[in-house]
């Protein structure tokens, strides 16, 4: 039993798999963005090199920072994402999932964003606390529509609070599922911190946003959590809305769905300008949330009236 | 050659410091990012804070007013990193060698601050973007020999 | 030649006080008596729409000579009004920044580099000099030795 | 009142030697304070230690973008002081390099201005076609910048005929591309809404501040040193001074773009009429005692040099005044009273030398919002008002 657990945790759905898939996904994002600007773009393993280098660098801890939280917070992101990746893959592949695992998942997916906020707050630099409160605004903005969209999916797929329940037939086939999927996709875009919602840690614009004081291994941990999020979040969408994946041909089909979601995110990233954080809040609360609400209402009506496609 | 310097040579993050240059070299440093030269092919990326920096691209003959700022940046950058003195002014104060307000080439100021920071000189007025990338490459290779 | 025609207008207005003038193609240098200096600046800037190009300060042995360069663009003529300022103790003259806002920065630079004070200047602050260079050190003076200037 | 963030978020392209401090009440700019001096290298003192022929190499490094303007103005000053004649062919070569530099400087600024209001495509596009001019300049002078062509009394090197012919195709491509950019910019509704009536410099204020170059020509005042004090071969070429009356940022954009087209036209004329043979240097022996003034129309405005000589081989006094020195303070007249989001593009519209345009702007009175971002969002709001997701300018440039 313990052997299986160790294997799950460290090799297949766990650390090794998430990291390597994250590296490839991150490379894909950077390469496509570069090609859009007539540039060549980075080599395949560039994200891996970045992280390896960061772990070799010196770790500077500023005096004004809150020591213990400055050091511990970076671990939150990868830990949360690792667990959620295991739950997700387990729910799809062998289909073992416990009641209420989707709620656990939603909690875990908040950890990376929270880690960046707490990291920025505890590093004692006025610029990074400015970046953190923008990140906090963004989290508030996208949590609401995300929850609504997921509830719509749950209602649509028959109300069971188990992830395995979704893999029977794709929720997105129905109208409510489609609306829910679009709203959730935009929330994932914000959670990954991509343009148009990347003002908190705008890589080039602001001085590195909340992560301005971090250097070396701690910054590496944040980059790792970003890589893992690149795998986990689209996978979460695939499982909930697009019917997940199973063994054999199903795995290939699942991977294709994953790549489709990723390319969708990249397209949104490259064709939109950056939104200010209060504009992003307005966009989510007056744009994405009503859409998700509509999806929920349609799902409920569909469920009661027994109409499949609604 | 240990893995730390191997890491830096694979993904050199650049941070640009202008210590009073006539912005001839600054434009060439920026040209390295534009499509024609694209430094991202070798993993280069412009970062926003000295904490994240591996290579400080320093231009200009270090005017008196910029010196304290440059030293603060040296202090703030995470070791190990390289200082790339871009342009003849940064390498040897060039034409401003006897100007009253220029206080010394980048190498002297860096060494007074802390000797074991490695300084790469990229001469040229302005150095062509290819020269800057080649200088960067030479610096990263030299860093591999040094034990960190 | 527009230089001599403008000189006639000046002498017509200020008579002998215009002082010695030198002319060359497109250039006119005037050494007026100090008391009519403001009226001449007024005359050139306001009435003839002369544009203040800049003020150069020349450090001669016993005095600073301020050269006010005005450009009469429509005539293609550069009129330079010279004003000597004695070097005793605190060399100073009246500022023209209130009538000509463009002169504000120029006078600030001359003040910090040569030590010529401009009375009535709206914002007597440093412009270019580094903080480590003292208020009493005037780098552009001939007698300023660069070596002993300590580097902090 | 929120605390002042000590350093503004710095621009990824260029760290900022100039720092602005804007005092802002709600959406309105009350005052602008500028701390400059990081770039002060004491060049005027330096040139007093150099001989007359060495000074052009020092003066070339005053500013990286107009590295032909300062040596040209200096040589004019020395020639004015010593009454030195310049041979015909040297005048042609000097004017050609001057106009090519105007093209590359205006294209650089067009890219930067586009970036400041959120059009990164304009930035990438303009800087991509600027490489054409840099290649031509490198072909003719041997270096992309800092050309080292100037010498009191003439030019350092001759330009062979075949190099001139090789430059022609690049000029034609540049002409099409600049015309395309000019038309695309002018009929883009978002650009108009964003720049029209913004940061207006009244004619009266322009005269008071002694503004120069495109900044003053956009306010309807036809000051242009090439026409007022003809030097080089400008009196033999057929060209016109470009002015607009509106005096706002859009007018300045128009004047600069039209000047680029004018400069391309002039360069082609010069290549046609360049004399084949003839001396390129009148080898002056010495400079008699006296003083000389040289003014030259740099891309940003009149570049003024005063040289005093006492008969020795070194200048006694050398005063340099770059155009930005006069254009910069006009922000008091153009920026105060405008909305915060427009502050960046207004400060950039006088085209202060590249590094002065930065947005290391820290704000008092607002929770440290960075101006660059405000400026970009202002464009996005306008795009949404017009119901476009990609403005016509971007569409034109994207295919």
Brief summary of the model shown:
The complex is a heterotetramer of chains A (310), B (148), C (152) and D (399). By secondary structure, chain A is mostly helical.
| Total strand segments of chain C | 7
The CATH homologous superfamily of the domain at 2-90 in chain C is named NADH:ubiquinone oxidoreductase Nqo5 subunit
Which overall shape of chain D is indicated by the principal axes computed on the Cα atoms?
A: globular
Rounded to the nearest angstrom, the distance between the terminal CA atoms of chain D is 47 Å
CATH topology of the domain at 2-90 in chain C, what is it called? Answer: Beta Polymerase, domain 2
CATH superfamily of chain D: Cytochrome-c3 Hydrogenase, chain B
Counting DSSP H or I runs of 4 or more residues, the number of helices of chain D is 16
Describe the overall structure.
The complex is a heterotetramer of chains A (310), B (148), C (152) and D (399). Chain A is mainly α and 310 residues long. Chain A has one domain. Chain A has helices spanning 2-10, 15-36, 46-56, 67-92, 101-122, 126-156, 175-191, 216-241, 249-271, 277-305. Residues 200-207 of chain A have low confidence and may be disordered. In chain B, α1 packs antiparallel against α6. Chain B is α/β, with parallel strands linked by helices and 148 residues long. Chain B has six helices and five strands. Chain B has helices at 3-10, 24-31, 67-76, 88-92, 106-113, 129-145; strands at residues 13-18, 45-46, 55-59, 82-86, 118-122. A five-stranded parallel sheet of chain B has the order 2-1-3-4-5, with helices on both faces. Chain C has 152 residues and is α/β, with parallel strands linked by helices. Chain C has a domain at 2-90: NADH:ubiquinone oxidoreductase Nqo5 subunit (Beta Polymerase, domain 2), CATH 3.30.460.80. In chain C, 24% of the residues lie in helices and 28% in strands. In chain C, β4 and β5 (77-86) form a beta hairpin. Chain C is elongated and about 50 Å long. In chain D, α4 (88-116) packs antiparallel against α11 and α5 runs antiparallel to α6 (161-186). Chain D is globular and about 65 Å long. Chains in contact: A-B, A-D, B-C, B-D, C-D. The interface between A and D is medium-sized, with 16 and 20 residues.
């Amino acid at each position: 039993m313990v052997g299986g657990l160790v294997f799950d945790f460290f090799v297949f759905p766990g650390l090794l798999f998430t990291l390597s898939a994250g590296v490839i996904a991150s490379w894909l994002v950077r390469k496509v963005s570069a090609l859009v600007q007539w540039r060549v773009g980075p080599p395949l393993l560039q994200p891996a090199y970045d992280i390896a280098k960061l772990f070799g660098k010196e770790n500077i801890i500023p005096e004004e920072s809150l020591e213990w939280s400055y050091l511990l917070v970076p671990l939150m992101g990868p830990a949360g994402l690792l667990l959620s990746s295991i739950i997700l893959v387990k729910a799809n592949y062998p289909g073992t999932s416990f009641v209420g695992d989707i709620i656990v998942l939603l909690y875990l997916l908040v950890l990376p964003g929270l880690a960046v906020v707490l990291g920025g707050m505890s590093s004692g630099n006025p610029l990074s606390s400015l970046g953190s409160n923008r990140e906090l605004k963004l989290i508030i903005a996208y949590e609401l529509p995300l929850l609504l969209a997921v509830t719509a999916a749950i209602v649509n797929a028959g109300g069971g609070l188990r992830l395995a329940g979704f893999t029977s037939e794709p929720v997105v086939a129905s109208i409510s599922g489609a609306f829910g999927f679009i709203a959730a996709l935009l929330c994932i875009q914000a959670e990954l911190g991509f343009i148009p919602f990347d003002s908190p840690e705008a890589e080039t614009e602001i001085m590195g946003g909340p992560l301005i004081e971090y250097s070396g291994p701690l910054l590496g941990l944040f980059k790792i959590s970003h890589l893992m999020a690149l795998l986990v979040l689209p996978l979460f969408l695939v499982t909930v809305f697009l019917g997940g994946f199973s063994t054999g041909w199903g795995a290939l089909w699942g991977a294709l769905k994953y790549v489709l979601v990723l390319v969708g995110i990249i397209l949104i990233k490259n064709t939109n300008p950056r939104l200010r954080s209060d504009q992003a809040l307005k966009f989510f609360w007056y744009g994405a949330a009503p859409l998700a609400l509509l999806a929920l209402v349609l799902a409920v009506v569909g469920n009661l009236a027994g109409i499949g496609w609604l | 050659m240990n893995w730390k310097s191997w890491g830096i040579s694979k993904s050199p993050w650049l941070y640009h410091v202008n210590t009073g240059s006539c912005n001839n070299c600054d434009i060439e440093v920026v040209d390295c990012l534009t499509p024609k030269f694209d430094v991202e092919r070798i993993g280069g990326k412009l970062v926003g804070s000295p904490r994240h920096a591996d290579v400080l691209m320093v231009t200009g003959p270090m005017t008196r007013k910029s010196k304290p700022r440059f030293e603060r940046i040296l202090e703030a950058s995470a070791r190990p990193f390289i200082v790339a003195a871009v342009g003849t002014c940064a390498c040897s104060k060039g034409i401003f060698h006897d100007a009253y307000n220029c206080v010394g080439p980048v190498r002297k100021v860096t060494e007074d601050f802390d000797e074991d920071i490695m300084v790469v000189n990229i001469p040229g007025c302005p150095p062509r973007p290819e020269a800057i990338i080649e200088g960067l490459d030479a610096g990263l290779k030299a860093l591999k020999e040094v034990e960190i | 030649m527009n230089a001599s025609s403008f000189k006639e207008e000046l002498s017509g207005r200020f008579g002998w006080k215009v002082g010695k003038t030198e002319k060359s193609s497109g250039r006119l240098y005037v050494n007026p008596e100090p008391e009519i200096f403001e009226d001449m600046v007024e005359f050139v800037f306001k009435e003839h729409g002369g544009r203040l190009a800049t003020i150069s300060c020349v450090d001669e042995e016993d005095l600073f000579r301020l050269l006010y360069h005005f450009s009469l663009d429509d005539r293609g003529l550069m009129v330079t009004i010279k004003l000597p300022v004695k070097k005793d103790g605190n060399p100073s003259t009246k500022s023209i920044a209130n009538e000509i806002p463009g002169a504000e920065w120029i006078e600030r630079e001359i003040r910090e580099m040569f030590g010529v004070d401009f009375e009535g200047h709206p914002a007597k602050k440093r412009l270019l000099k580094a903080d480590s260079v003292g208020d009493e050190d005037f780098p552009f003076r001939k007698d300023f030795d660069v070596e002993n200037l300590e580097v902090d | 009142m929120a605390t002042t963030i000590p350093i503004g978020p710095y621009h990824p392209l260029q760290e900022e030697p100039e720092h602005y401090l804007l005092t802002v009440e709600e959406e309105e700019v009350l005052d602008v304070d500028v701390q400059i001096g990081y770039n002060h290298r004491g060049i005027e003192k330096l040139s007093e230690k150099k001989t007359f022929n060495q000074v052009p190499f020092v003066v070339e490094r005053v500013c990286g973008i107009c590295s032909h303007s300062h040596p040209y103005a200096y040589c004019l000053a020395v020639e004015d002081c010593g009454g030195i004649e310049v041979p015909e062919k040297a005048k042609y070569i000097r004017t050609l390099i001057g106009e090519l530099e105007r093209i590359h400087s205006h294209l650089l600024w067009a890219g930067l201005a586009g970036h400041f209001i959120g059009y990164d495509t304009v930035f990438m596009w303009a800087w991509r076609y600027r490489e054409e001019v840099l290649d031509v300049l490198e072909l003719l002078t041997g270096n992309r910048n800092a050309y080292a062509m100037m010498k009191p009394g003439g030019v350092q090197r001759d330009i062979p005929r075949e190099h001139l012919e090789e430059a022609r195709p690049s000029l034609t491509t540049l002409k099409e591309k600049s015309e395309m950019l000019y038309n695309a910019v002018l009929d883009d509704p978002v650009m108009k809404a964003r720049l029209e009536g913004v940061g207006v410099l009244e004619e009266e204020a322009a005269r008071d501040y002694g503004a120069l170059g495109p900044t003053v020509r956009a306010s309807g005042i036809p000051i242009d040193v090439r026409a007022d004090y003809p030097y080089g071969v400008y009196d033999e070429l057929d060209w016109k001074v470009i002015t607009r009356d509106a005096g706002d940022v859009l007018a300045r954009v128009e004047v600069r773009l039209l000047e680029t087209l004018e400069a391309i036209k002039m360069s082609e004329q010069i290549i046609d009429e360049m004399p084949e043979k003839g001396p390129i240097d009148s080898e002056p022996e010495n400079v008699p005692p006296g003083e000389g003034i040289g003014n030259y129309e740099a891309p940003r405005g009149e570049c003024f040099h005063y040289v005093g000589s006492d008969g020795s081989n070194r200048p006694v006094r050398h005063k340099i005044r770059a155009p930005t020195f006069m254009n910069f303070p006009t922000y008091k007249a153009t920026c105060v009273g405008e909305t915060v989001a427009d502050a960046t593009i207004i400060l950039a519209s006088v085209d202060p030398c590249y590094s002065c345009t930065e947005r290391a702007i820290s704000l008092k009175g607002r929770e440290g919002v960075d101006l660059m971002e405000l400026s970009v969002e202002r464009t996005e709001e306008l795009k949404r008002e017009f119901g476009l997701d990609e403005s016509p300018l971007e569409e034109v440039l994207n295919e």
